[in-house]
Design a protein that fits this description.
Length: 296
């Protein structure tokens, strides 16, 4: 993608005006990234660049601003930028424009989740343009006559604009997690499965139960994104990838059948799951899959 060409949609003579930057990026996550966060889409000393996967993520971000709760799985190789986008760039856009008030991030270990929060917080502290245009987001919430931080730690921050970000290990006790009366509106799960060398079938079943019975119950109307890389056969990510591919094959077969005979009932359903939760499975290919996963 030609970044300069996309930026040209935002008139050059307006870009120096703070109110115009906020207006032009409010409903456009990709524009927000290009205006405020180009340093985050560089690889080493190369020029900023975007792959189709990143454009898909930017499009996905727009869906988080609807009234419908989204359930998505993003599967991609290491070093593809999935964590940068899903745990930093998209959350910054959501927080800056009030699209999200409370994000909760989970990883296999608390340390890993806290690293995502640390990266997010570092951007708030060091990005001068963000601090100019979104002062309240970049300032910690203070309380009391002594002006003490309400919450600024490795595992939780609360900002002056009312935005909160919490980081937890996936096995931490999370039921009832809320700040004041507010529950998370966006749940992020990154690499929540263990190392392949010590990740048994029993561990997989336990992790699935934790996600479906604890994390998913934190907020029924929250958007959820499960992010990972297929490293272990039979892992949750591998199961999601497999079902997604079968669904895609099924859809293609139905489309092909319809071309030859519009009255053909098509192929029998390949994979069946008892569920009311719909999850979109997104891989770094050209297909976006639709699947169902057990939820309750």
């Amino acid at each position: 993608m030609n970044i300069d060409q996309y930026l040209d949609k935002f008139p050059q003579h307006l870009r120096h005006i703070s109110a115009m930057r906020r207006q032009w990026t409010k409903n456009d996550c990709l524009m927000f990234v290009l205006v405020y966060l180009q340093s985050s889409i560089r690889f080493d000393d190369e020029a900023p660049s975007l792959a189709q996967f990143h454009l898909d993520l930017a499009d996905y971000a727009q869906s988080l601003c609807t009234d419908k709760a989204m359930r998505d799985a993003w599967i991609a190789p290491r070093e593809s930028g999935k964590s940068t986008w899903l745990f930093k760039l998209i959350p910054l856009w959501l927080a800056a424009h009030g699209h999200s008030k409370f994000i909760a991030a989970f990883s296999d270990s608390a340390t890993q989740a806290e690293q995502h929060l640390a990266t997010f917080s570092a951007e708030l502290q060091s990005n001068e343009l963000l601090k100019l245009d979104y002062r309240e987001l970049c300032k910690p919430m203070m309380r009391g006559t002594a002006s003490r931080f309400v919450s600024q730690s490795r595992s939780q921050i609360q900002q002056a604009n009312g935005f909160s970000f919490v980081a937890r290990g996936i096995d931490a006790k999370t039921l009832g997690l809320k700040i004041g009366n507010q529950r998370p509106d966006y749940l992020l799960l990154d690499d929540v499965e263990g190392d392949a060398s010590s990740y048994s079938e029993n561990d997989i079943a336990k992790r699935k139960h934790t996600i479906l019975s604890s994390v998913m119950f934190l907020a029924s109307r929250a958007n959820v994104a499960l992010v990972g890389t297929t490293t272990t056969q039979g892992s949750l990510i591998d199961q999601i990838r497999t079902v997604g591919e079968l669904r895609a094959e099924h859809a293609q077969a139905l489309a092909s059948s319809a071309v030859h005979n519009e009255h053909d009932s098509g192929i029998a359903t390949i994979v069946k799951h008892k569920s009311n939760t719909t999850m979109n499975v997104n891989a770094t290919g050209n297909a976006t899959y639709l699947m169902k996963t057990n939820s309750r």
